[in-house]
Amino acid sequence: MSSLARVVITGVGLTAPNGNNLAEYRNALLTGKSGVQPYEIRYFGKTLAGICHYDALRYQKRKDVRRGTRAGSIAIYCANEALRDAGLDWTGLDKSRVGVYVGTTEHGNVETETEIYEVSKQNYDLSFWTHHHNPRTVANNPAGEVTLNLGITGPAYCIGAACAAGNLGLIHGVQMLQLHEIDVAFGGGVSESIHTFGIFAGFKQQGALAHHDDPAKASRPFDTRRNGIVVAEGGCLFTLERLDDAKRRGAKIYAEVAGWHVNSDSTDYVLPNSQRQAECMRGALKRAGMQPGDVQIVNTHATGTHQGDEMEAAAVNAVFGDYEGVNVNNTKSFIGHAMGAAGSLELAGNLPSFDDGTVHPTINVDELDPQCNVRGLVINQPRKVGQVNAIMNMSFGMLGINSAVIVKKYRD
Fold first, then answer.
1. For the chain, which domains are there?
2. Cα(37)–Cα(215) distance, rounded to whole angstroms?
3. What pTM did the predictor assign?
4. Active site (catalytic) residues
5. ∠ at Cα 222 (221, 225), nearest 5°?
6. What would the pLDDT profile of 64-99 be if each residue is shown by its tens digit?
7. In 45-164, which ranges are continuous DSSP H helix?
8. Which of 36, 59, 357, 367 is the most exposed place for a label (fewest CB within 10 A)?
C-alpha cells in the first residue's frame, strides 16, 4: 500500500429505504427508524420489503425513466448526488478520466419478467415486445445509464459479485485510481431486487424469507426469533479521488480507504464458510497494516438467516473477540438486505462515526441468540464511544464470495 496512491472518499450519494441522503439516513440509523414496509408484487402476493422513495425526476426526464431501468435510475440518482456532495468542477473535468464502477447482485430479471407479463396479455404476440429490452438487460446497464446521464466517456461497467458487490464497486474504483487509469471514480452498488418476483419466490422456497406482523421488526439479525431475509432496493455510490488531487482542490474528505480483501469459500452455493470469512477479514487488516484492536467499528453482513448469522458471528469472534473497544453493528436490521447495494449503503451509514464518535445499533434484537453472542455487539440503542479511527465493512454473497473493506479517519 505504501507505494500506491492514497485514495479518499470525497462524496456520498445514496437512496435507502429510510433516507435519500447521508444526513437523513444517518439520523434514521441513530433514531431506530426502519425502512421496511408492506409490499405486494405480481405473481407472489403480499410480503415485506425495504422500499426507496427518492425523486427519480430530480436528474432524469420522464422519457429517460421509462426507457431505462430501476437500477439505472437509482445509479443516476446516486452518482449525481455523490458528484454534488463532492463539489467537483464538473464542467472543467475531463470526462474521459472519470470511471463508473457499479456493483450489482443481478440485473435484467425485472425487465424480462415484466415484458413476458405484458406480452402474455397479447397472446404472446412479439410485436408488443419492447425494443428497449436488450439495453435494459445487459449487465453493464446501471453504469452505462450513468455515463449517458452525465456525459462520462471513461471506463464504466458493472461488477457482478452477489451481495458483496457494493464493496467490490468501491474496491475497483480505488484500484483504477491507484493505477492512474482515471482521476475520479464513482464506486459502490445498486439494487432493484424488490421488483422481481423470482427473488422473493427463491428465498421463500428456501425458507429464508422473513415475515413479521410488524414490518419494522421483520429484519432481526442475531435475534433468536429471526426468520429470514427482508429484500430491499437502494443504492450508494462514493466519489473517490487520489488524496493529492482531493487536497489540491480543498475537498471535504469523509475517510481514507485503508485496506480490503476478497476471497471465495469454494464450499457451497449458498451456505457460508466461517473460516473463509475470518480469512477475508484478516486479509483486509493485513493490507491496511492494522491489528484487530485498531478497528473501532465492525459492520456485519448478517441477513437474519439462522445459519448465516451464526457462521458470521463465529468469524467475527475469531478475529476480534480478544480485543476490547471493538464495536459491532448491523444495518440490515433497519433497511433489509439491499443485495448489490448492501455493502456500500452499510459503509456509508457508519462514515459519520468519524465525526460524532457514535456507533449506530443493531435493532430488533429482543433476545440475543447465544450462538450469535458477538463481543462488542451494539444492540437497540446507539453507543457513544468517543474516538473512531477505523471501520471495517463486511459483505458476503452466494457462491461463496466474501469481501471486507477498511476505511480510516483521514489524517495528513
1. 7-248 (3.40.47.10), 259-406 (3.40.47.10)
2. 5
3. 0.97
4. 163, 301, 337
5. 85
6. 999 999 999 999 999 999 999 999 999 999 999 999
7. 62-67, 70-86, 109-120, 133-137, 141-150
8. 367
